[in-house]
Amino acid sequence: MTKIRLELLESRLVPAFTLVGTYPTEATTSPYGLSVADIFDNNKPDVLTLNSSSASSNTFKDATILPNTGGGVLGAATTVTAALAGATGDAVADLNGDGTPDLVAIGPSGSFPDGLTVYLGNGDGTFQPGTAYALPAKPTAIQLVDLRGIGRKDIVVMAGGSIDVLLSNGDGTFQPVQTYAVNAPNSVFAVGDLNGDGKPDIVTDATGGGVDVLLNNGDGTFTLPTAVATGVAGTPSALAIGDLNNDGFGDLVSVTAGNSMVNVDLGDGTGNFAAPKSYAAVNGLSSVTLGDVNYDGNLDIVAGSTGTAAAPQNQIAVLLGNGDGTFQAPVTYTAGASPSDIVLQDVNNDGAVDIVAANQGAGSVTVFTNTTPAPSVPTTLQVAATPVVDTAGQTVAVTVTAKAGTVTAAAFTDTIHFTSTDPQAVLPPDYTFRLADAGVHTFDVTLKTAGAQSITVTDASQSLSGTAPVTVAPAAAADFALSGVSGTFGAGESKVLTVSVTDAFGNVIAGYTGTVQFTSNDPQAGLPADYTFTAADAGTHAFPMVFKTAGADSVTVTDTTTTTLTGTAAFTLVAAAPATAVAVFGSGQSAAVGTAFASPLSVHVADIFGNPVPNLSVTFATPSGSAVTVPTATFGEAATVTTAATGVATSPTLTANTVLGTFNATATVSGLPTPVQFTLTNAPPPSPPTPPVSPSPPVSPAGPSPDLVGYPQFAVGADAGGSSTVNLYLPDQFVAQTVNPFPGFTGGVRTAAADFTGDGFADIAAGTGPGVSSEVVVLDGKTGNVLDTINPFESTFTGGVFVAVGDVNGDGVPDLIVTPDEGGGPVVVVYDGAALAKGQTVQLNRFLGIQDPNFRGGARAAVGDLTGAGYGDLIVAAGFGGGPRVAGYDGKSVASGVSTPTKVFADFFAFEPSLTNGVYVAFGDINGDGHADLIAGAGPGGGPRVTIFDGLSLLDNKTDPIANFLAGDPTNRDGVRVAVKNLDGSSQAGLIVGSGAGAGSHITAYLGKAILSNPSSPLSAYDFDAFPEFTGGVFVG
């Protein structure tokens, strides 16, 4: 079966030139050195020729101008100047930027000097006196070319055996000559870009055939000549350079005197040429030039002949280029005798190049105008998009066709610009059509905004435009866009969150029918139940909700099936109106008449959701009345204060008057109807001491007991997930020792620091966290050496242990207390510290610190001198899962080994009984009254709440807080670890606080006096990260 293949044949315009006329230059002269330029500055290119006495004479006479009277018709010739007598070549161009053509003439004989002369044009057919430039040899050919690509015409001259280059200064003057030696017997050269760098190179004829190539360095200087073979026999008499096959590299065209062949050597971009292809033209070729004479964008060849004895001497041949380096058969035109110089230029301003020939054998100039039909002028831009229904983010193929009526304008070479109604469109940059496009080009466009969109293409130069419509559908669901909940608003305000499912470009997806779930970091938020979108929602639904916890909050919407499909709205919630006010501390205390109460009064104000309310006015007041009849107290300064960010307001210091008795002080909170009541007592003054019977010898004061203020050094270990190293710090944060008690273990290390060895420097006790059989290691603080290793519980117990230190047996050496973590009972094991220093394990007691043998949340312990008896008492707190119960035991009773040691106060709850995350404890004399105070830190899951209970009051079974504040990061909800340390050498213990599990590795230090100075928000002494970049929490001791 025979298949027929149809191919679109190239449309090609056949050139047609019409003889305008032949015009004499000057009687009995022979013209050469042809130039065409608008010498009279009237937008009509004129003709300038040099003249010799005859075609065979070497007597160079003068120059003449033939003015263009319009349409390429030339007027009578006029002599330019007798000074040009003897010139052998010329070139015309604007050399000084004034828009008027200037003249450069060369000449080696007669009255004209051996060099070149520059004549600046006046624009009226006359020239200014010339400026001469000497050359190293007699010049024979000249071209004016912009060698540097800067818009200035430079001079290139063939002079004897050299190429001479004079670079333009831009003002009609030129730089000193540069000379390049060549071997050019016929003294012909051509200028053009051979290697595609945009800078013209030079090719000359060469003895024995071939050519010399000089490549442009880009700055108007050239490489040394390189001999290049062309494969053409004989020495060329004329050369031309142009891109004949549209590959971006210059190709070479040559003719040989007396020959009829035009030779084409295609360039390879390096200055070398492929084997030539020759085309028969006319006999006796003497000149060649290149130009596009038929509007197809391909260079064509125009060659002139001086003829032979047996052939006509008046032929001009036109060979049309095919655009691939090949040429069609010649079309010939008859001029005057020997048209040896040819210029292609538009002389009638119709946009087509015309032919001007100097007839050397006839003393005349012939003009042919190009009557090739011009290509159709485009009238519209046709724009078509494929597909016309697209998905956001996908590519649309846009085809632009230039149309002249209903015919494609194949020669369209304008620049087009793209716009779109889609503000997110990705459009092509401006594009200039090439002839190779044949009037049609396809572009990629990406549209992203759903809906009816359009793409418009504009050709501003011809006021043409075209538009293609495209309907854009949303892409796949990528996000939830949330609105209606943002900025700052009050707790409890009703809000409506609008949820729209969108693609990656913000387009709402109307067909979404997924199920969404709502979450928030606000634990009190009132959120909607899961919701399944319906078709009626069209991708958008509004949900009422309420938020209640003050701070930086957010709400997140997530697709229950595709969990990566999500959206979050962030906002700031501020407290609502005040709803409750409670006494924090200060109630129940007493002061001797006429003296100040130990603690100011403090009140905490919250809204209905428990948020602290800041910036509220609180007025503290005491009973008024006669200072001698009513027990009362006076404030040292104004008693109206403002609540802090924590919602706490603290009164100034109170001083009891001289009347004994109990009375109530009040705190009235702005916006609340009922004042907060505080009970205070004015007590009798202390009895004066009994004078001694005889003077006692002076006694050196002892420093504060570690069982009251702790040791100066403190140990820090990482919680689960961190390294097993322990750092021992001095009070100034200097790391005095680093040890690794459990190499490779990552379950967390619990720590304590006390001087077991009696060398004046604290040693380290470290216990394992969960994950391995419980173990405690005691290490020398100075050397890091192991003093003792203890396995306090059965090997099957892997829940981890806590460690505490303090002198419970009164021997002046701290003892070691070990309690189990979660999974163990409330067991307390006490080891003799003096024995540990010797590497011996001596157990002093093992008993249940919390009277609940079935409890398996473990226990936490601390030691301090509560009674002021000179030895440490033991505090035991329930571990995780238990309420915040705290029990206290007499130290010596514990050390005696009895199973039920004597309690020093009744058990109580340090925090709300409903909390079941246990409590961390420390024991030390914060207020400096000689009795250790109980410090309670919130357990895991709680905020960083620290409450300090007065020790002396505990002995009376009173739980009077002397401080209550948020330690470290107030946003932390992972509990807080506490330890008592002697940070400033005073009689008041300092407090070290460590981040709870998952809350970082932050250490915060507080001095005792700072805590008493501002019990609700004490100023920290310092804070730092013990293990930078670790966020799993730390243990302190």
Automatic annotation (TrEMBL):
Keywords associated with the record: Cell projection, Cilium, Flagellum, Signal
Pfam families listed in its UniProt record: FG-GAP (PF01839), FG-GAP_3 (PF13517)
PROSITE patterns the record matches: BIG1 (PS51127)
Domain (Big-1) ranges: 572-679
Alphabetical list of InterPro entries matching this protein: Big_1_dom, FG-GAP, Ig-like_fold, Integrin_alpha_N, Invasin/intimin_cell_adhesion
UniProt lineage: Bacteria, Pseudomonadati, Planctomycetota, Planctomycetia, Gemmatales
Ranges of Pro residues composition bias in the record: 683-704
Protein name: Flagellar hook-length control protein FliK
Annotated segments matching region Disordered: 679-706
Family per similarity comment: Belongs to the intimin/invasin family.
